[in-house]
Fold this sequence. Notes:
Blueprint: E1 5-12, E2 16-24, E3 30-39, H1 46-49, H2 54-73, E4 78-83, H3 85-89, H4 93-104, E5 109-110, H5 113-124, E6 134-139, E7 144-149, E8 153-159, H6 163-170, H7 178-203, E9 209-213, H8 215-225, H9 232-235, E10 239-241, H10 242-254, H11 257-261, H12 274-287, E11 292-295, H13 300-312
Parallel strand pairs: 1-4, 4-5, 6-9, 9-11
Antiparallel strand pairs: 1-2, 2-3, 6-7, 7-8, 10-11
Helix pairs in contact: 2-4, 5-13, 6-12, 7-12, 8-12, 10-12
Amino acid sequence: MQENSKIGVIDIGSNSIVLLLADLSPDGRITPENEFYAITKLGSNVKNAGCMSEEAISHTILAVKEMKEIASKEGVTDLVVTATSAVRKANNRNRFLVRCHEEFGIFPQVLSGKEEARYTYLGATHGFVAERPFVTIDIGGGSTEVSWGRSMMIAGHSIDAGCVSLCRMFDLSQDFSLYKRISASRFLRKEFAKFADDLKLWLGDRSPMVIASGGTVTTFAAIYHQRPAYDREKIHATKGHRKDVAAMSRSLGRMDLHSRRRLPGMDRDRAEELPAGLLILTEFLRYFQFKRFLVSTNGLRTGIVKNYAATARI
Length: 314
């Protein structure tokens, strides 16, 4: 590469569709420029029915078409389109992929859980110095990825619970009662137990830098700072504490949906599932006895750009 390139990544997630525009320099430096997103809740039907609803598919395809047009107008030279949890789990994923190709000429790359964990680790740790081991958690709509390593990921796991799927599984959107929270927490602890021994053995007595990413976490930071609009620079590297996440999860759970949406910093399209997403983060921190974490506004999409940059330079 002899000159800067503008790379676009469209991430088709279980809850949202996000376009990241990033500047890639010849020496591999990545500068995220802008993000555009739409909430389509593509995975809202997958956990219970096993398939994506026709309405969600139509909304998602329309959103992707619009983002592809934005990318073109912004001068994107290379566009990568990926799909994650909802699409890889759905019985009708082939139908969705064919429709994508018919509508905008691209077959999205469906990432496995391991691939999603690896790219997320690459992105979430971007810009942080590995003075200590990294442990990352990215809370999506249909799954949550937990990874660890230093300059490179050592291991990564994808658990079958995100803010949307956990919300649907335990009916947490309108009823965040103690009984339902306990049931959801037990489920999460069983998921964490599947890789707990590996993580604890690798860490030993070392204290890691815990980095959290994803819409749930950045919305937590926006509410924490009471920012009326998303401010990437202000939110990135926000220092969070387990007790604050737990308190916000409970507080939001006691509010009706209208009251949640009116909070400064709240993304109104995430208000329904946010208490469940924060419960995932709370239980993760509690299970592994982590008290503090840092918020990363980077994640899967930045990781995909980093992987693209590394491949392009070979």
